[in-house]
Design brief:
With 366 residues, this protein is an alpha+beta fold. The chain has three domains: 170 residues, Penicillin-binding protein 2a (Domain 2) (Alpha-Beta Complex); 64 residues; 87 residues, DD-peptidase/beta-lactamase superfamily (Beta-lactamase). Helix content is 38%, strand content 25%. The protein is built from 14 helices and 15 strands. The strands form five sheets. Strands 2, 3, 4, 5 and 8 form a five-stranded mixed β-sheet that branches. Strands 1-6-7 form a three-stranded antiparallel β-sheet. A three-stranded antiparallel β-sheet has the order 9-10-11. Helix 3 crosses helix 4, helix 11 runs parallel beside helix 13 and helix 11 crosses helix 14. The radius of gyration is 35 Å and the shape is elongated.
Length: 366
Amino acid sequence: MCPNRLRTLCAVFIIVIGGFGYRLADLQLTPDQALAEPISRTLRTEDLPAQRGSIVDRLGRPLAYSRPVPTIVADPRLISTEQVPYVVGQLASFLDTDPEVMARRLTSDSRFVYLERQVDPEIGDAVMALGLPGVWSYEEPRREHPNGVCTGLSLMGRVDIDHLGISGLEKIHDQTLTGTPGTRAVEVSADRSATIVGGQQVLEPAVPGEDVATTLDRDIQFKAQELIEASVAQFNADLGMAIVSRIDDGSVLAAVSAVVDEETGLARCTSNNLPFTHTFEPGSTMKIVSVAAALESGAVDPYTRIDVPVEKPYPVDDGRVFHVRDTGRYEDRVYTTSEILIRSSNVGSSTLAEVAGPDAVWDLMH
C-alpha cells in the first residue's frame, strides 16, 4: 500500500501519461488541418512518364528513341513582384522563351507554370545553378533521331510536346510505342525549388511502350539521302525521291526525298515522306521502263531524235484501235529520247517500247 502522498503522485503520473497517449492517438487518427497543411505543401505528386518505345532498323539500330531532358518550371507564388524582372533577366540568357511571356507566366495566379519544356541537359544544369527562387526542373522524354533530321522528319514522323505520335510511323504505331504513365510523390523544399534526396516514392510504376522494328537499313537510308540531295542539285530539279528495296521480298531498305529550298536555293530533305505520299499516274511510272529498255537495246541513245505525233493508233486483237495521245499538245513534235522522259510523253514512250520490243520490256519489268 502506498502512503497518501505517494498514492497522489502515482495518480497524477497516470493522468499525465494518459493525456499524452490520448493526444498522440488524436493526432494520428484525426490530424489537425493546420498542422498537416505545411507537410502537404512540401509534397508534390507528379506523373511518372512511361518510356516510349524505340523505332529501329532491320539490325535493331535505333532510328528514333526517347531520352530524358530537363523541363524548366516555376511556382509564381514563391516569386515576389519585385523579383520577377531579375528572375526573367537571368533566365533570358539560357531559355528561348520570350521574356515578356515568361514575365506574364511568373506574375500569374498559379502554383505551376512552364517556362520552357525539353531543353538540352546543359541548359537545365545552368538554369538550376542560378538558384532562382521558385524555379526548378524535372525530366521529360524528348525524341531523338541518331540518323539525322531527314530520317526523323520524313520517315519516323513527329511526336507532340506530350510525346504522342502525330505523323509518320510515330502516329501509325502510336498505340504500340506509347506506354502507360505512372505516378510518384516527391518531397520538395519549402520554397519548392529543390527535390529532397531520398524523398521520392513511386505510387504506381510506369509501363514502357514496345519497340517497332522496320525493314529500313540506317546506313543505306543515310547514303541514299545524300545522293538524292546531290542529284536534285546537280540536275537543277524541283524535287527528287527514291526507294531502295529488296527484289526478293519487296522490303524497303530506304525511302528518301529532297526538294529545293525556296529561300536558299539549295537541295534539302522534305518534311513529309514523298515516296509514299506523292502521287503519280500509274502509266507514267512505267515510262521509265520503256525508255530504259530502248536505251539498253542500243537502238537509241539519250540524244536520238524521234518523231512524236499528237496521237498514235494501236490496233488490238479484237479489231478495235487504241489511240495513245499526249494531253495538252495539238501538233506533232520531234523529241530526243531524254525529252520524251522529261516531258512524260505517252506517244514517245510507247514508240520507244516498240523500238525495244515486247520481250525486252517484259524482261526489264521482271
